[in-house]
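ARCHIVE CARD
SHELF: 3
SLOT: left
DATA:
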Amino acid sequence: MLVSQAQLMTHAVFQLSIHIPDQNKTQKIDFEALSLWSRSDVTPGYYDTGFSFIRAPDELLELVSALKDYFSFRDVSIS
């Protein structure tokens, strides 16, 4: 999902990139995504847009997987 100050067109293909800072440089991952929906955000003047990857490089898929793992809730068994 992208949060922006402009409502984006739906069912359109966008050329996007994500910049990942590292200690000495920034890694840039370019990809294409299809906008599926767009609606007003809870913050006035902002919009949320949902996307589906079209051509996602492996680096992007690995990043998404790592972020999903990091931000997921897990059951923890108490021994």
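SLOT: right
DATA:
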Amino acid sequence: MVHSLRKAKNESYLNKLLEGKDADFQRRVLAVAVEHGLSTSDPLFLIMLSTGQLQVLLEDKPNELDQLFKYFLTICCFS
């Protein structure tokens, strides 16, 4: 009984952490859990998610920064 209540509470935390995030972000977070054999109701996973969200968000940024840098070079150096 206590274990199931704790699991339900942790699932609620997971839902709050993922609330407002797009489906792709949610999919990537859950894929990380599966890849590393973590339970999404594990308190350690929830801590990792809450403190590591920036890492997941930044996975797409190197490509965007590269494009921005190339655009900047085009504007500043070749005009």
